[in-house]
Write a structure and sequence with these properties.
Bound molecules: MU-OXO-diiron
Radius of gyration: 24 Å
Shape: elongated
CATH class of the largest domain: Alpha Beta
Number of strands: 24
Largest sheet: 7 strands, mixed
Number of helices: 13
CATH superfamily of the largest domain: Ribonuclease Z/Hydroxyacylglutathione hydrolase-like
Strand content: 15-25%
CATH architecture of the largest domain: 4-Layer Sandwich
Strand order of the largest sheet: 1-2-7-8-9-10-11
C-alpha cells in the first residue's frame, strides 16, 4: 500500500496484512491493516509502527515522503505488538536516541518488551507537544484496551489518532469511510464486540469526558481499517449505543452436537422462540467462529446454550465459547441451557454455572433429554423456546 495523504502534511504510512486469518483468536477473514501516521511539520513525527515483519515496508512507505532518518519524534499510543513490534527496527534505523513519547504505562510496558534501550518520554494526561505549526495533545485512555493505551490529538486539524479504538479488521485499498460506506459497520461492530465490549463503561465515561472538554473531532485515524473523515460522529454514536448494551428483541442459540440430538433440540427451541415473534438464530459452534458468535451476542437479549455431555463434562467447543464470552462480560442478558445426554447428563448444570457467573438472568434450570428427543421431547423443546421468547418479548 502506498502512503496516502489524509490532510496536508499528515499521511497514513501503514501496511495491509492481506493474509492474516486469525488475529489472536479473532477471525480476520479479509485480513487487516496496521495503520501508522506520519506528520511532516517543523518536526517530523511518526505515530505508532506496525507488526515486526512489516517494519521494512513501513520504512519504505515513509521514504516515499521523507527520509525516515529525518523523523524527530516517535509516539507510541499502544504497546501491543501489532503496533509496536516494528519499533526496534524503526528506532534502530532512525537513531535510538530520538525521543519516544508514550504514556507512563506505555513506558513501563514498552520497557518490559524491549528493555530500557530507548529515549522514553512518558507523558501526563493532557500534556501538549508543539511540533511547529501544530500542537499535539495526549489523552490517556487506560484500559481502552490496554493499561498503556492513549490517544494523540492534533489540535490544529482536530484529528484524533485513536489507536485501536474505532478500528476494524478490514483490509482494502479504500482508506476512508466515504469510500466504503455502511459496508464498514459490520466490521466495526465485530471489532467492538470482540475487543472492546468489556470496557463499555469506560467508553461511555470517555465519550462524556471528551464532550466536557469540548474536543472537536473532524477526523478519526484508528490503527486498523478505514479512517473516519466524512462522518466521525457515526462511529462515536455507534460506540455509545453498543456500550449501553441495550439488547434487541433477539435470541441466539449457541450449541454443539455429537449425534445431532442437541441439534434437533436447538432447532425445535428456535421454532418455539420464533412462534413468539422474537428474532432467533441457531448457531452451530463448529460452523461459526467464536468471534462471529460474539458479534451476535452483542445485541441479543437471550443467550441459549446447548451442549451434549461428553466424559461427564461440556463439549470442548462449548467451553471454548463460554470462556471467551465470559471474558468479554456481556450485560443485560437472559440465559437458558439445554442438551442431550446418555447416562450422567452434567452439561446443562455446567452451562448454568457459566451463565450464572456472567450474571445472566436464568430462565430456569434448563432442559435435558436422554439420547434422542422423541415427538414429546421436541414438543418440550418448542415449549421451552416459547418460554424464552415470551421472556424476551416482555423485557
Ligand atoms: Fe491493534 Fe491492541 O492492538
Amino acid at each position: 500500500m502506498k502512503p496516502v495523504e489524509i490532510v496536508k502534511g499528515v499521511y497514513n504510512v501503514g501496511v495491509i496484512d492481506w493474509n492474516i486469518r486469525d488475529f489472536h483468536g479473532y477471525s480476520t477473514e479479509i485480513g487487516t491493516t496496521y495503520n501508522a501516521y506520519l506528520i511532516v511539520d517543523e518536526q517530523v513525527v511518526l505515530i505508532d509502527t506496525v507488526k515486526k515483519e512489516f517494519a521494512d515496508q513501513l520504512l519504505a512507505n515513509i521514504a516515499e515522503i521523507v527520509d525516515p532518518k529525518k523523523i524527530d519524534i516517535v509516539i507510541s499510543n499502544h504497546t501491543e505488538m501489532d503496533h509496536s513490534g516494528g519499533l526496534p527496527r524503526v528506532m534502530h534505523y532512525i537513531g535510538e536516541s530520538k525521543p519516544l513519547y508514550c504514556s507512563k504505562m506505555g513506558h513501563k510496558n514498552l520497557a518490559q518488551h524491549f528493555g530500557q534501550i530507548f529515549n522514553y518520554q512518558a507523558v501526563e494526561n493532557g500534556q501538549e507537544l508543539s511540533i511547529g505549526s501544530r500542537t499535539l495533545a495526549f489523552l490517556e485512555t487506560r484500559m481502552l484496551h490496554w493499561p498503556d493505551s492513549m490517544f494523540t490529538y492534533s489540535k490544529s486539524e482536530q484529528i484524533l489518532f485513536s489507536s485501536d479504538a474505532f478500528g476494524q479488521h478490514y483490509a482494502g485499498y479504500e482508506m476512508f469511510d466515504d469510500a466504503v460506506g455502511d459496508a464498514i459497520m459490520p466490521h466495526a461492530k465485530k471489532y467492538f464486540a470482540n475487543i472492546l465490549l468489556l470496557y463499555s463503561p469506560k467508553i461511555l465515561k470517555l465519550v462524556e469526558q471528551v464532550a466536557e472538554m469540548g474536543l472537536e473531532i473532524k477526523v478519526i485515524c484508528p490503527d486498523h481499517g478505514i479512517i473516519w473523515r466524512k462522518d466521525p460522529g457515526k462511529i462515536i454514536n455507534a460506540y455509545v449505543e453498543w456500550s449501553k448494551q441495550e439488547p434487541a428483541k433477539k435470541a441466539i442459540i449457541i450449541y454443539d452436537t455429537m449425534w445431532k440430538s442437541t441439534k434437533l433440540m436447538a432447532e425445535a427451541i428456535a421454532d418455539g422462540i420464533a412462534e413468539t415473534g422474537v428474532a432467533v438464530k441457531p448457531i452451530h459452534i463448529r460452523s461459526s467462529h467464536r468471534s462471529e458468535i460474539m458479534t451476535e451476542v452483542l445485541d441479543a437479549r437471550a443467550i441459549v446454550v446447548g451442549s451434549p455431555t461428553l466424559n461427564n463434562g461440556l463439549f470442548p467447543s462449548v467451553s471454548d465459547v463460554l470462556t471467551y464470552m465470559k471474558g468479554l462480560r456481556p450485560k443485560n442478558k437472559i440465559g437458558a441451557s439445554f442438551g442431550s445426554y446418555g447416562w450422567s447428563g452434567e452439561s446443562v448444570k455446567l452451562i448454568n454455572a457459566e451463565l450464572e457467573a456472567m450474571k445472566f438472568d436464568m430462565i430456569d434450570s434448563g432442559l435435558k433429554i436422554q439420547y434422542v428427543p422423541d415427538k414429546e421431547g421436541l414438543s418440550d423443546c418448542r415449549a421451552y423456546g416459547r418460554k424464552i421468547g415470551e421472556a424476551v418479548a416482555g423485557q
